[in-house]
Amino acid sequence: MGSNSIRINGPFDMKNSIESGQPLAFHAEYSNKGKSFDTTYSTSKGVITTRLNGKKLSYSWQGEYTATSARMEITRRFRINDNMQSIYEKICTDDFMKSAISAYNGMRVTQNDPWETTLSFILSQFNNIKRIRNSVKMLINSYGTPVEGSDAKLFPSAEQIREASIKDLMRHGAGFRAKYIRHAAEFCSDNLDMNSLYKMDYGDAKEAIMEINGVGDKVADCVMLFAYGKMEAFPIDVWIKRVLETIYFDGKKKKVTELHEFASEKWPGMEGYAQQYLFWHARSMKIR
DNA sequence: ACCCAGGCGGGCG
DNA sequence: CGCCCGCATGGG
Q: B4 C1' – A25 CA distance, angstroms?
């Protein structure tokens, strides 16, 4: 247990960083209190509580954290050290991107735990955000280890999830994805050292994670981006497909492979950030 | 009541 | 390889 604070440089919109369909959207608790914004979320090691007030991000931790590791967790999770001006220079390529950046100025791509991200985005397939959130929270409450001095629980490990029966996972809202989750939990605890993917390049790491049954092209890209911080990853879901076709291809249908090529040529090395702004802006504008 | 959801694997041509 | 289909379930 302890607390400290970080001074934020550059624009930082914590609310949209959490709400914008990234892993924290699926289990973090958050609220506006006056002019400050409060957040609490479970990790594999403890519980992190933050309060953003202007440029000051105060935080406290419980569980297996030291002052150093807690600071690293927060810095990494919200990509505090990202140079947003430099990122915006790369992705502000046209009027649509300009309006997206303007609407969500300071929204970060977050960088989350690999297992947490894999589990969350397997659940996301053919699902909606509210339901994904209910499922993830149920899984935390049912399988997570209690945290001393808190009523919260740790984010459950792959080793803990693999002990669940398919039926139990289905009862927790996983539906037909239950078998994928079980396989992922077994694969990630037996056959895959998830930490080894950090040092692989994007293509190799994506290929490795796609060995999990239930992880295809889109979910793999989400894991590459939201866990491993590989900024060339460009997850293409229905929203991204529609918004690209609408804005850049005059409404004409394009194949996913063509859209990947388009993104890598338009936002080289920063596709992930472009995707996050496209996604959240497209959803708010209900582009269908 | 009815439709749909940040896709995926499997089966087929 | 590309296309098409079914899929558990609950929120809107």
A: 20
